[in-house]
Design goal:
7-stranded parallel sheet; cell membrane; 2 domains; 6-stranded parallel sheet; 15 helices; alpha/beta; about 45% helix; Rossmann fold; about 375 residues
């Protein structure tokens, strides 16, 4: 069975695509998978390292408001459709899967017009423009959040599957994570992370909150600053007269490659609201304080965070509210109220989809033609 997967621009589109690719390889012994992206997107670096064949097409996002750049974008989209058509003719896929990003548009559109079965995966609570346009043409749509369902009118082909999460995230034991990070097993562990690049505003807000938070003997913090924010975070702490010398309840690190350790060790999470990260903390059943990245496309991180907040799984603090001390207030409430923490954990776990990858791969096989399975 030959399968094309396309998605790119950000890790939020790429990593779910790679998880789906791995799931298909495990489920279908003779699966041939081709990944199609762009030369400029992160996928050009990440996908070849994952060992998948990789080809590119020309495409870029539509510039708004209308300008000469918009015309250039439209021209590139047409060129991308033509390049995509040639890839489809050469590879002759049985199914084409799109996980979002501008690159999906031309390829999934071309596949649908050629009668090739197509499926989309939408990671965020509010679907991106590309997926909303393609939704009318494809054979199946998988969504991560229940809030996404209302944006797709053809209810019969929309499935609430969740987002595929790495097995390492689901299988890691708490004590293993605690030992790997050098933490105490007898304390409430709070993990703070602004994502792979860090979050300056979150680092600053936490540095101001630590003065009071660190007075609690039974609480410990593992704070991942991001590579570019580590030295600045140390400066922030110095301004608050907080020294790390001999301090056992606060660990500051620039980066952590094995996030599965941090998520296993954590009792509470403080972080951004990207869809992949939220899927991981939901599966782990972790209460959280979410600070959505304010410049995310279409403000999707705020909508993601609101999906958890509405279910009682998280508290949300907007970036512009950090200077008002709301992060400290939200975090203190969860730390002090054990029953609230348990309720939030249960709500988060209830939103997690442990069988997401299996459901998605079954849907992909289901939309293929019988003779291709």
């Amino acid at each position: 069975m030959r399968i094309i997967i396309t998605g790119g621009g950000t890790g939020g589109h790429i990593y779910p695509a790679l998880a789906i690719a791995k799931g298909l390889q495990n489920k279908i012994r003779e699966a041939e998978i081709l990944y199609v992206g762009t030369k400029k997107g992160l996928e050009a670096e990440i996908v070849p390292k994952a060992g998948l064949p990789f080809q590119t097409i020309s495409v870029e996002g539509l510039s708004r408001p209308f300008s000469y750049r918009t015309l250039a974008s439209v021209f590139k989209a047409c060129k991308g459709c033509w390049e995509g058509w040639h890839i489809l003719r050469a590879f002759r896929p049985h199914v084409v899967i799109g996980t979002g990003g501008y690159v999906c548009g031309p390829l999934v559109f071309a596949a649908a017009t050629l009668g090739i079965p197509t499926l989309l995966h939408e990671q965020n609570a509010v679907p991106g423009l590309t997926n909303r346009i393609l939704a009318r043409l494809v054979d199946g749509i998988c969504v991560t959040f229940e809030d996404s369902l209302k944006y797709f009118p053809a209810k019969e082909k929309v499935h609430l599957t969740g987002l595929p999460v790495r097995q390492e995230i689901m299988g890691m034991e708490r004590l293993t994570g605690i030992k790997a990070l050098g933490l105490s097993a007898n304390k409430t562990t709070i993990v703070v992370t602004g994502g792979s690049r860090g979050a300056r505003s979150l680092n600053l807000a936490m540095s101001r909150a630590y003065g009071k938070l660190l007075q609690r003997d039974q609480v410990q913090f593992y704070h991942i600053t991001g590579p570019g924010g580590y030295e600045e975070m140390l400066s922030f702490l110095a301004q608050e007269n907080i020294s790390l010398d001999g301090r056992e309840n606060l660990r500051i690190v620039p980066y952590l490659y094995e996030m599965e350790y941090a998520l296993a060790a954590a009792d509470i999470i403080v972080g951004r609201a990207g869809a992949s990260f939220l899927s991981e903390i939901m599966l782990r059943g972790l209460p959280s304080v979410l600070v959505p990245y304010p410049y995310a496309a279409a403000n999707h991180q705020e909508y993601n965070a609101r999906s958890l907040e509405k279910k009682g799984a998280a508290k949300m603090v907007l970036d512009q509210e950090l200077e008002q001390g709301k992060l400290f207030t939200a975090l203190e409430e969860i730390i002090n109220n054990v029953s609230l923490r348990a309720e939030m954990a249960e709500a988060a776990k209830g939103m997690g989809k442990i069988n997401a990858l299996d459901e998605i791969t079954q849907l992909i096989v289901g939309i293929s033609k019988p003779e291709q399975r």
